[in-house]
Amino acid sequence: MSRIRLEGLSRRFGSTVAVDDLHLDVADGEFVVLLGPSGCGKSTVLRMIAGLLPPTGGRVMLDDTDITHAPARERDLAMVFQSYALYPHLSVAKNIGFPLRARRLAKAEIRAKVEQVAAVLDLGGLLERKPKELSGGQRQRVALGRALVRDPGAFLMDEPLSNLDSKLRSTTRTEISALHQRLGATVVYVTHDQVEAMTMATRIVVLNHGKLEQVGTPEAVYDQPETVFVAGFLGSPAMNLVPATLHSVDGSLTVRAAEIDLPLGIAADLPDRPVIVGVRPEHLAIGGAGLRGVVRTVENLGGEEVAHCLVGEHTVAVRGPRPIGVRTGDAVGLRADPKHLHLFDPDSGRRLTWQAAPVSV
Ligand code: ATP
Prior knowledge:
CATH 2.40.50.140, Rossmann fold, 2 domains
């Protein structure tokens, strides 16, 4: 298996900067997910690693070899596409064995390897079928099989599940994760689906306009977003973000949002400054003194409900077990534990942290 290192990787298309000075280390056996909205540069990064697109700056290292300009076929990497890219006139067995025939392996050896991979992916009974006789999930497994059979240094996957329906997406997701754990393979995986990123990644790389916003474990990226962008991208609904003022009341930090003071329980005397305060919908509770709002709608998600409340001029989402206990038009108080409040600089969008002793309560 392999390590992949990107050193200042960049790609321009005319005046568009698709990828901007990206530095990233993918360790041997890691499952790294490139996550971000449409057009943020995820596929461009993957295609540069695969050798399908030349960078306009920077280097791609595979282990300690500079492969920036190596032809795609000479890179020890296997790519799995969203479109499966199967050969329609070839059987499943021939599709899976294709890379081995290209390497001119003996027929018996190819057959043995194809059967081994088919067993891993539960495709044993389908080897003589043509792609059109398969379901979407089965086709995707054949595409995975064709990558697996090469036993590559690393797998590059570009939204491989996006053509599947939601149930199949969830089972195939579990299969890919299990396969990764069993093989200990290095994977770089592109998606805009945060559930895929949260459930499969050992580390998530969040991209925005070709730039790296944050790299970290799913927990770190969700619990400690480094930027307003990351806070607003992850989570469903995303983190509530409201402009506020940070000020000190009797030597203790307090956030003033929608005309309400929310004490942070941190001792510090700072001059007043504008901030953006963030709180996840699941960290807000209904009832008690705190922000005051009016419920506009309640969404039923099955096991949970989300109440969208108007607080001042902002809509704030609250998520909780169903029934959440409020109805459209209700006046509500919203409260949060100060430890669940996130503060960001409105200009740079970066997370604010400070060193101070907590106030004892
Ligand atoms: P999606 O999730 O929609 O696939 P993405 O994050 O993978 O998006 P890319 O496909 O990498 O985004 O594109 C990044 C930027 O580069 C976009 O602004 C896109 O329009 C631009 N781009 C990509 N390929 C080309 C190309 N061949 N010519 C010109 N611009 C391109």
